[in-house]
Structure formats: C-alpha cells, structure tokens
C-alpha cells in the first residue's frame, strides 16, 4: 500500500482532508490532476460564508456555522506552519439589495431560519442610511443590506498554496499531473492515472470536484452532481473602497475588487460571456459607483460543483466500504470543517460528526 | 452590431496587406488597430513621419508607406485607436475607442496582432532607465527622440538595425553588447546555404554592422551575466566578455533578445499552439492560408510565427485571397493563380530564418533567469519563486499563477508568460508543450467597468447612463 488514505483531488477540499488526516497521524497520498483542469479551487470567490446557506435545511446552516467558527484557529495554525498570512477577515458580510421588496422577502427567510436555529443566526438589517455609515462609498440606488455577523472572507489561493505546502511538510505525498481515470476496489483500492501510473491505498476519498461524476459510479456512488458556472470579474488594485465583503463584491487583500456572481447551467463551459460580465459589472457599479472608473484586468468563468439540493455530499460507499465521497460547492467555507471534523468521520472515530443528513440516500428518497 | 466580410485585428504589414487584397476582390473590410495611424510597430507612423526622420529610419521603414496608403480603398474601414479586449470564436470582437465599447463581427477574422519583444529578465531590468530597444525605436519613429548615453544589449538582427539608426541620428550607442556566442554562429552555419536564398536580408544585416563599425561603436560579443547597476535608476551595465568582468557607465540600457509572437488573442480564442524550438516561443497552429482550426479564423504576420515585415505582408495577402474565395468573391482557380507567386516569394523570404534563429538565440539569462530576478513585473514574482512553486507541485503556469500571482497583473502574462513556461518546464523536466501556457481570459487589454457595464442588456444603470 502506498498510503492509508488516497485522496483523489488536490484542490482545497482534498487538501483540507489530507491536512486533517495528516494531523491525525495518517499517511496520505493526494492525487492531483492537470494544470488545465476545471478547478473550483482557483476560480472561487473566496468567501467564508454563512448567510443564505441552508435556508431550507438548518443542518447545513449549522455545519457552515461550525466551520466558520473553526476557521480562525485553522487559519492561524496553517498560517503559522507555512509562514503565510491567509488574510482571513471575519467581521461580517452583506447581502446588498437595490429593491426594498426583495430585501424584505430575504429578511423573512432569514427570520424563519433563525427561529429554526433556536435564535443562533446573528444578522441585522441595515437601511440605506445605516448602511452608508458602515460603507460610505455605497451608491444612492442601494436600498439596504442584511449584515450577517458570522460571514467573512479569505485569500483562497493562499489557502490552496498553504495546504499544498503543509501537507507535504507533514509527510503527505502530493502528486500533481495525476489525472485518475480508473479506480477499483479489492484488497484496498487501486487508482490508474492517464499517464499509466498506478497507486494503491487502504482507503480512498473521492474529492475530485466534477471529476466525481465519472469516478463516483466506479466506487458505487450515484454522485448526482453537475457543473454550474459562475463568472467573476476583478479590477486593478484599488485603495480601500469597502470594509466588509458581500456575496457579490469584495475587495481582496491585494486591493483588487472582485465581482460576481452568476449562476448558469451551461455544462462544462467555463468561458466568459459579455452579457453576464456586463450585467454583473452594472450591478457592482450601482452598489459602488466609484467602480465605474476602475479598470477591469481579468475575468473568468469557474464551475461550481452542485448537488441537486445544493448541499454537500458526504457518503461512504454502500458497496465498497473504505471509499468515501466528499463533494460540495463551498470548499472554502467548509475547509475548516473538512480539516478539523471530517477526518474523524472518515476514521469512524467516536468524535465523528453526524453527517447523515448529507448522505446520498437523501436523493433516492425524494 | 457591425458586421463585415473580413475583420482584421492589427494594422501592421499583415493586416494592411490582407485588407488591400480582400478589398481588391470586393470584400467589405474593417481594420481595428490600437494606434492612431496605420503601420503597426514596424511601420509606425509611416504616413506622418517627416523626411529627415524617414532618412534615419532607412529604406526598409519607408517601404511601409504604400501599404498604409492602400487603406484608402472605400471598402476598407480603418478603426484607429481601438483596443480590442474580448474576441470570441464566433468572430466577434469587443473593443473600445475613447472609452466607448462596441462590438463588431467578421464573416472571416484575421488576427494580425504582431510580435512582442521578448522580455530580458536580467538583474536590474526593472529599474528606471532600462527599456527595450524596440521601445526606443518607437520613440524615434513617433517623436524623433533617442536616448543619449545608451548601451544596447542582447541579440538579434534588430539590435544592429536600431544601433545603426542611432548612429544615423547622431546619438550612437556607447556600446553594443551581444549575448550570442561563437558556438551559436557555428550552430547556425549549416543553415547558411539555405539563407543565401534570402541574401537581401543578410546583406542588409551586414550593412548595419558595417555602419556600426565605421562609427566606432565598441562591440562586446559572447557577453554573459548581464546586470544593470544603479541606485534607484540605471547607471551602468555590467557584463562578462572575453573572460573579463567590465562595467559600462551609461544612463540608459536598451535590451533586446528578439521578438516573439503576441499570442494573447489566439490564446484567448483557445486556439491550439505549438512550441517552436528554433524560435523558442509558442505559435498558433495554422495552415498555409493562415487558417486556424477554428473555422474562418486566420492568423498572419509575426503573430503566426516570426518572419519579419515582408513575410507578414505576403501572409496577409494570402489571407485576403483565401477570405475572398471562401466568401465566394474569388474563383478558387483565380485565388491559386494569384497566390502562386506569393508562396514562392514567401519561401524565399523565410529561407533566412533558420540561420538567424540559430545565430541569435535568446541568451541563457533570458531562458533561465537567476532565482533573484523578477520575472513577472506586474506582481513582482521572481524566477526563484516560480521554481519554488514547481517544487510544490506546479506542473504548469496556471497552478503557478494561483500559487504566486505570476501572470495575474494587468498585462495578463503577456510579458512573463514565456519565461514562466520555460522556468517550469526546466524545473519539472518537461517540454514547453507539456507545460503549457497561461489560460488567457478577457479583457486582453484593461477596460473600465463602466465601459463593460454600458453593454448590459438591462443594467440597473441603464436609466442614468
């Protein structure tokens, strides 16, 4: 056996698990794909985000809250080990609205979730004037915002790099350019890569993002996931324009303002379109008018990994025990949970979180 | 949206020739170009330059004038001052003129965006007072200005031309520092018989060298370990040549290690490229009519592989003929009849290339910069950091970009792309083709959010715009 755990996928999800498993003393092997693959870990928005998660499934809201709460310690430990500041800021985040009625409708949803969470859902509603005191640069068209105090953001690329470095530092093997094309069970698991190399391990975790669509069924998973495109714009580096992030605009620690996000069902097409870029640019300019003069330096499309209900899937294979599927569209928010709590579940340890609600079986029932 | 028969990006020799040829066959042509006047970099401002300056620049520059004047055809719409920032496989280009964005589409599209000077990442190259030799030449063409007390360093025929132009202008360089070695020349010799077919180019080059000799410009050949010295700005160029370290005090250092295709547009289109080992650069794949695997999209000129102005002009003409035939304006037999002499001249003009490529390769510092040297100027990423990213598993430039921001700045890797690929390829023991290149995304030139927002179908800002 090359390792106790082989993790297919060297993005943030796979590396967070590898990091946590390494902390528990396991020998891990991470098989990472090609330079040009679809990589949500490179294209994501960088939010550590609680609001709007699990509006209809409080367990998901709670799991996100638990991860967000664990993030500070996780970032500190990872940052210290690698000498990298992950630029984590958890000082709250906004949901901006240009329309009063939309804001009110959203507030009612949040109130409903707060009740189901027993009150642990700290948000407040800011009208235009109150918001203006927090964010003096907002424009006159902003009706208001929901400020959720558990939200924040991070530099997701530094997270990716820090994880890649620290898993190696702890003795984990991370092999890149290893596109797994086949995986088979038996005595442990054997992985075959596109270049013909083979690897084996006692257990295998499928954390390959959209790659799980192909590999999942080979391990007995339904893996009912699909790509959903989001387009993102980023401006030149600017002086400080905003104090807190929102779900659609944030100023990254290097100074650029990042603007999202679209939700498009276009299959495996990660290109950018003028129509969407123009629409999200116009919305950003309406919220922060100073952005009109900012130079756009780059845009990109990235593919979310979406399950039918938008929640993560954590599942041990019903037919091939020792194989696990871990997939979600919020790999940054959930990185701390994946690093801190999920390894115990993989180990079937006493302190394992109860993840029954995230099982694939929920799709069979409905 | 505007629609034309042939849409051309770039009004250099390839774009101008394609426009004239296509318009001559009856096509409606639009020619987008960043500059105020046609000519590209090679014939920059050729329609406006005063005679005295034209004399300094020489006959090979003045040769561009008829081409530029050919744009007067009423079927050709020349759109100057246009920055193209998004190009789609359906042959639509989004561009801006004076801060206003517009869309234009061609039934055929020619990318003729030319060449870039290969960046020369030596210690101190980002200091004020250091510029590319080509940038100095543009200053001369546009404004008649040349730096005084300048050292010119690197390799390639253009180095001699610019040095000769400086001599003619009365401000000769303090020294000509050449990085190519006697070994490079020996390696080039087998290509010499082929190059004789292109004897005109060779004779021009020898003429420039003779001009420099007559002017007494000191020449240092086989120079290694170049470094720009200076506190806050360039004060001297240090180098090792003939076994001796020397320092040449100066105010300006002009660097040049040849030109490479500008592939931002063709990469943006997702076109396949191949590594050209002789020219040490990527070139977009295309057939003999310049057509790429994307239907109706052509490349011509230096952007399709470095060949120089005459090759660019000929390849542009071929695209014009091909487009006219494809759109039913020219009988294929007639197309072939007109193309035959162009193909013959093209072969002759290209014959000198293998010799030049072998004799004037980019120096070892350019291909593999020292660890402490900045490679990505926008984000100030050093070669050593790229090598560290390789040790962290980065097999290609896109993961390295995510890890260390090389290529993330406003130039989108236009300047560091080749160096990043070369460093990763060397560090990982892979070929440049295996290593790949940055995924280029729009905008290929910065554009303001207001310009983009104005194109929203129903933007919240529409009413106030």
Automatic annotation (TrEMBL), chain A:
Protein keywords: Oxidoreductase
Keyword check for Acyltransferase: no
GO molecular function, one term: oxidoreductase activity
Keyword Oxidoreductase in record: yes
Gene Ontology CC terms: cytoplasm
Family matches, as Pfam families: DAO (PF01266)
InterPro entries (alphabetical): FAD-dep_OxRdtase (IPR006076), FAD/NAD-bd_sf (IPR036188)
Domain FAD dependent oxidoreductase: 5-342
Protein name: Glycine/D-amino acid oxidase-like deaminating enzyme
Native source organism of the sequence: Rhodovulum euryhalinum
TrEMBL record, chain B:
InterPro entries, alphabetized: BFD-like_2Fe2S-bd_dom_sf, FAD/NAD-bd_sf, FAD/NAD-binding_dom, Metab_Enz_Cyan_OpOx_G3PDH, Opine_Oxase_asu/HCN_bsu, SoxA_A3
Matching CDD domains: GlpA-like_Fer2_BFD-like
GO MF entries: oxidoreductase activity
Gene3D superfamilies with a match to the protein in the record: BFD-like [2Fe-2S]-binding domain, FAD/NAD(P)-binding domain
Keywords, in A-Z order: Oxidoreductase
Domain FAD/NAD(P)-binding stretches: 5-309
Residues of the SoxA A3 domain: 375-454
Protein name: NADPH-dependent 2,4-dienoyl-CoA reductase/sulfur reductase-like enzyme
Source organism phylogeny: Bacteria, Pseudomonadati, Pseudomonadota, Alphaproteobacteria, Rhodobacterales
């Amino acid at each position: 056996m090359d390792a106790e755990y082989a993790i297919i996928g060297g993005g943030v999800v796979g590396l967070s698990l590898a990091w946590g498993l390494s902390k528990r003393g396991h020998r891990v092997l991470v098989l990472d794909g090609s330079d040009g693959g679809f990589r949500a870990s490179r294209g994501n928005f960088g939010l550590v985000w609680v609001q709007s998660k699990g509006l209809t499934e409080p367990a998901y809201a709670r799991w996100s809250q638990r991860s967000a709460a664990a993030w500070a310690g996780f970032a500190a430990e990872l940052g210290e080990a690698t000498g990298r500041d992950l630029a984590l800021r958890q000082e709250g985040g906004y949901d901006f609205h240009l329309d009063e009625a939309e804001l009110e409708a959203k507030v009612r949803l949040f109130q409903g979730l707060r009740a189901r969470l027993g009150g642990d859902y700290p948000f407040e509603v800011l009208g235009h004037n109150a918001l203006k005191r927090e964010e003096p640069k907002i424009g006159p068209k902003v009706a208001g915002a929901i400020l959720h105090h558990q939200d924040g953001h991070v530099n997701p690329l530094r997270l990716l790099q820090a994880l890649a470095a620290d898993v190696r530092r702890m003795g984990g093997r991370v092999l890149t350019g290893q596109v797994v094309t086949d995986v088979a069970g038996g005595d442990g698991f054997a992985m075959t890569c596109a270049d013909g190399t083979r690897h084996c391990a006692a257990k295998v975790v499928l954390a390959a993002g959209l790659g799980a669509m192909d590999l999942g069924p080979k391990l007995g998973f339904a893996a009912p996931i699909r790509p959903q495109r989001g387009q993102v714009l980023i401006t030149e580096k600017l002086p400080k324009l905003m104090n807190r992030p929102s779900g659609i605009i944030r100023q990254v620690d290097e100074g650029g303002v990042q603007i999202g996000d679209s939700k498009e069902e276009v299959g495996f097409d990660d290109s950018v379109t003028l129509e969407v870029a123009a629409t999200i640019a116009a919305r950003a300019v309406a919220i922060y008018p100073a952005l009109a003069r900012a130079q756009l330096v780059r845009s990109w499309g990235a593919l979310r990994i979406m399950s039918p209900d938008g929640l993560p899937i954590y599942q041990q294979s019903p037919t091939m025990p020792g194989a696990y599927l871990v997939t979600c569209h919020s790999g940054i928010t959930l990185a701390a949970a994946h690093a801190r709590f999920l390894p115990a579940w993989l180990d079937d340890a006493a302190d394992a979180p109860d993840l029954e609600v995230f099982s694939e079986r929920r799709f069979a029932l409905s | 949206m505007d629609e034309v028969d042939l849409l051309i990006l770039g009004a250099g020799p390839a774009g101008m020739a394609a426009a004239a040829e296509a318009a001559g066959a009856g096509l409606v042509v639009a020619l987008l170009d960043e500059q105020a006047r046609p000519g590209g970099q090679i014939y920059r401002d050729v329609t406006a330059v005063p005679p005295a300056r034209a004399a300094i620049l020489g006959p090979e520059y003045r040769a561009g004038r008829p081409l530029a004047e050919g744009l007067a055809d009423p079927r050709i719409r020349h759109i100057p001052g246009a920055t193209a920032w998004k190009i789609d496989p359906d042959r639509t280009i989004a561009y801006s003129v004076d801060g206003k964005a517009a869309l234009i589409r061609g039934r055929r599209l020619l990318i003729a965006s030319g060449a870039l000077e290969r960046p020369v990442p030596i210690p101190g190259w980002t200091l004020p007072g250091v510029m590319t030799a080509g940038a100095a030449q543009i200053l001369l063409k546009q404004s008649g200005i040349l730096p005084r007390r300048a050292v010119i360093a690197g390799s390639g025929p253009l180095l001699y031309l610019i040095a000769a132009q400086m001599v003619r202008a009365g401000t000769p360089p303090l020294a000509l520092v050449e990085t190519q070695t006697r070994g490079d020349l020996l390696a080039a010799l087998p290509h010499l018989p082929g190059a004789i077919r292109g004897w005109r180019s060779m004779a021009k080059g020898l003429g420039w060298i003779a001009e420099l000799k007559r002017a007494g410009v000191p020449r240092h050949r086989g120079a290694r370990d170049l470094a720009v010295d200076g506190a806050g700005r360039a004060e001297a160029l240090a180098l090792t040549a003939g076994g001796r370290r020397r320092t040449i005090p100066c105010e300006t250092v002009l660097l040049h290690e040849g030109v490479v295709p500008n592939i931002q547009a063709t990469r943006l289109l997702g076109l396949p490229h191949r590594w050209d080992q002789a020219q040490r650069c990527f070139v977009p794949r295309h057939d003999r009519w310049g057509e790429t695997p994307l239907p109706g999209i052509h490349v011509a000129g230096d952007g399709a592989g470095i060949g120089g102005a005459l090759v660019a002009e000929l390849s542009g003409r071929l695209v014009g003929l091909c487009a006219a035939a494809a759109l039913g304006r020219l009988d294929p037999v007639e197309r072939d009849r007109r193309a035959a002499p162009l193909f013959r001249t093209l072969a002759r003009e290209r014959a000198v290339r293998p010799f030049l490529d072998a004799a004037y390769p980019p120096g070892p510092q350019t291909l593999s910069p020292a660890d402490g040297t900045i490679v990505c100027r926008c984000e100030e990423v050093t070669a050593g950091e790229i090598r560290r990213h390789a040790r962290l598993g980065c097999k290609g430039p896109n993961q390295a970009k995510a890890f260390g921001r090389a290529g993330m700045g406003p130039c989108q890797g236009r300047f560091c792309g080749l160096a990043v690929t070369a460093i990763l390829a060397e560090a990982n023991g892979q070929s440049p083709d295996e290593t790949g290149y940055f995924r280029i995304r729009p905008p290929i030139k910065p554009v303001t959010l207001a310009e983009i927002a104005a194109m929203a179908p129903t933007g919240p800002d529409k009413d106030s715009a």
